[in-house]
Design goal:
Four copies of one chain form a homotetramer. By secondary structure, chain A is α+β, with helices and mostly antiparallel strands. The first copy, chain A, contains 13 helices and nine strands.
Chain lengths: 302, 302, 302, 302
């Protein structure tokens, strides 16, 4: 992740000057602030600002005058209760702002989450850097043969090499042509907003992304998940670590009641009840379709 | 505005203990934090937390690594440019959280602004306090004779007195009956979620309300306006003062390009162009309807 | 539910004149259009318009050129797959617009669902009707002794009668005073926007409420639920019947994967796995708190 | 715009079978339904469904039982009043669903408007077609020398030809390599979700996009504007024609009070007032900055 010395200096200068505030402070998050945490080959996630902590969730739930903390234990119990019963509004009372550098094809998935604020680096206004995502060998996966939307085994040998060569060469050539179209050396130079259309989807972009904790957790639930594409999951996994440092009690509740939770359909719940009563449940007598039954057996055994 | 001594103590305890942070700090807002600023007879607005300052708006607009400040002058110019050209996303990068106490009929108007986060004191769960909004004599206005949605002159003498008496007596009686229905003294006691239905719309409620700066300014533009009902305008006017302390450059730009700005229809702009060229414009040759012409003349003279 | 003869005539006139359209048509919803379905003592729900049907969900999921229907069976399977895997965007492609008449305290809960469009009858502009919600005897519940937010047993005898008398008398008196404050007979007459503050929360209001199917189902999941207050559940239950007529396949999937589904926490899922393996699980060795364990035992037995 | 014969047949089959409905029908919109209106070289906009018409806006504003139409004239006056005074909620009561085919770099601007529902063709799941946007000669503009974000004069001669050659060749080569990486002929074949990263931003994608009328007009105001990039403006201009057919009164009001309206800052309004009073206003005595004064003089003369 190639920050320039100037950028690194700017980050260090911000980390060097603590100020006084009367607001809620999360020590775990202060330790993260501004630092560029690397993701993929050239990407990063930086926390730019945050609002609130675990106690702020309880304070809002109680609409209280003071800190809202009776005791840490009390707060944890309340947070678990709120999460378990889908009382989402108190979690919306915390907010976080990230600076993210990410490939365009990841950005296109990410932006589908609409309940957030975004400022993206403008390729109409500015010139993009020559930085492209090239997968590491272990992430160069074949098309899944079972799932149209998934990955199969890792590519091997000559095929893997050929893919990497094509990705690298096409990226470099596209960028060379981008630069030569923009060039005002002996010619007018194509408008930036047009020249950018030559750049492939693995080029890196950057944005500021601000979101409340409830919507961030919803994003993480979908993207820090085995069904998500590896490249966006890499960002989501890192952001899970950051959230765990920021609001430890809320993140623990999220893990237990969302990430590691299991949702049973009406038919699935009935099947488990019958099994617990000693009955044998088959697809035929379960009321489930073939595909759902397969998913059920994967989770709960035959 | 009757805070209990306990509540006042909680507020003072929060104001007493500054902490260290690396985040952006707004000195004007730190001075406001937690204090209950009175509105109407029993209401208040308290700032509970905030994120960002004027520099954070520029930092996001530039998607920058550091503070984003080149110079205060530069930042002011950029903020004015963003506001003038409706580039709203950088203003969404600041956030603020208020604790507000307000009459229910004001809350019902307020909640229509949907792009905010809210936690309201629950009358299903808790018992409401005996606090009602009773207008001051100078706000006891007659129905407007020109505008179905507006107020006319202030009521006088016996009529004013009769209105105040009715409002006070009905509020007290409703609350007495609320308490007697809830009472478990010698009876079961009606459920809170039912008993509350007896309470009139001038009873006070409370909520935590969190919103980004762009949406807050939109709210203030509509509610700190002469067409807004006085009772909600009282809140909006106070919040304008708070925002001016928080992000002075953004608020100045908002005042010049939104609050004190004038929007001319296609026909209105054409009429002004013709007047500037020395022509006489009448409703007939203006292309405006009667009502729009009246509004035009009010603003620009005959 | 007292529609005036004029209102009834307007509804019948709209139902009398079918027109031609090329759009998707849902026969079950056409049969519902405009009719005022009664709820509570004076409320109703009317479907004013709708967009899309079950096939439209599949059409959007496939981003297709034609109807998107291969076969009804295929469509049902796809809809169940989308619901099971939380692919919510295709469900957002259907939309519905309701006209609802409801008590103000119900409206205040309802409006907390922000992802909808609302036009409410304005008490600043117009005069409200003399219509109040008075619960039927079987809904006059005591405060729950176990759950601060719930109802206990039904009130009996003199206590019930006293509550009903208070609710009725206070409503009538408040409305009498509302009228007398508004009156311009021998006096100026108080502004409507002020006079309304005297009216209690069981007065009826009306609004147009428009929402997409995904957000409507989310609303119904929370409000057609045993934890919701009876009075809003009455609306949600009726709307479930309407949705079942509109998009039968989507509603069946919603019932199986949301309404009648069971969510297991990480600890709950582990407890079931151990039980299925023949082990005895207690609160102590389950990793659950007391409250969560109680909820678990209620659902799955000791 | 190359629809296959199958796609064309699907569209014609949908247009061939009118059905009966009791809903509001817009004749101008029925004539548009399903037809693929061409935009750019391979793009299109198709109306898939709509809800409401001009009368529905008034019906919602009046929260009425019947059609809400008193007379067409009355309705037009009401719609103009609502638009002039920023009463946006009645316009949210109409909804429209489009099928749009557009280059990825246009899609990336478009998606920044968050208050809409979207289903995009998935390049994780499916294989994209070999279709790229190549600008026509008259749209091949140089970078503006005055505005970092704009276009200057049209490129000429050899430079224009070179740009077109590069865009075409890079697109074809990238697509060839996309296909060869995907191929399962004698190799495993790269996962679709990875192979797509090689494709440039001028490749076409497709989506279903659903939005309410208020938010659509906001989108059109920003994108059917001379500051918008030509390629997205081409879509917005066409959509303006469609909206004019759908809700003629609302569109006329939008044109007069938004598109062709002029916003004056506090300083700009004051400057015009002084000019109308015969005074000479200069930048120095206007209170405007240099850039704002330049914009003012462009609009109102020296």
């Amino acid at each position: 992740m190639p920050l320039t010395p100037e950028q690194q200096a700017e980050i260090e200068s911000e980390r060097a000057t603590p100020r006084q505030t009367l607001r809620a402070v999360s020590p775990g998050m202060e330790a993260r602030l501004y630092t560029a945490h690397p993701v993929l080959d050239h990407g990063f996630v930086r926390v730019i600002d945050y609002m609130g902590d675990d106690a702020a969730i309880c304070q809002a739930a109680r609409v209280s005058y003071g800190k809202g903390t009776r005791s840490v234990q009390n707060d944890e119990g309340l947070i678990r209760y709120l999460m378990r019963h889908w009382h989402s509004t108190p979690f919306e009372m915390c907010e976080v702002k990230f600076h993210v550098k990410l490939p365009v094809f990841v950005a296109r998935q990410w932006i589908r989450h609409r309940t957030a604020n975004v400022n993206e680096y403008s390729a109409r206004y500015s010139i993009l850097d020559r930085e492209f995502y090239i997968p590491r060998a272990e992430h160069l996966a074949a098309q899944s043969t079972q799932n149209n939307q998934g990955r199969g085994e890792v590519l091997q040998g000559a095929e893997a090499q050929r893919v990497l060569d094509l990705l690298r060469e096409d990226a470099m050539r596209s960028y060379d042509h981008y630069e030569s179209m923009l060039s005002q050396d002996g010619q007018q130079g194509l408008a930036r907003e047009l020249a950018r259309m030559n750049l492939p989807a693995n080029i890196y972009t950057q944005w500021y992304w601000k979101v409340d904790l409830h919507n961030l957790l919803h994003f993480l639930r979908l993207r820090a998940d085995s069904h998500a594409q590896y490249e966006i999951r890499a960002y989501a996994d890192l952001m899970c670590e950051i959230v765990a440092d920021w609001v430890p009690a809320a993140f623990a509740a999220f893990r237990d009641y969302r990430m590691d939770a299991v949702s049973l359909s009406a038919q699935g719940a009935e099947a488990l009840r019958r099994r617990l009563a000693g009955q044998v449940v088959t697809q035929e007598n379960s009321g489930m379709g073939a595909r759902e039954w397969r998913e059920f057996v994967e989770a709960w055994g035959e």
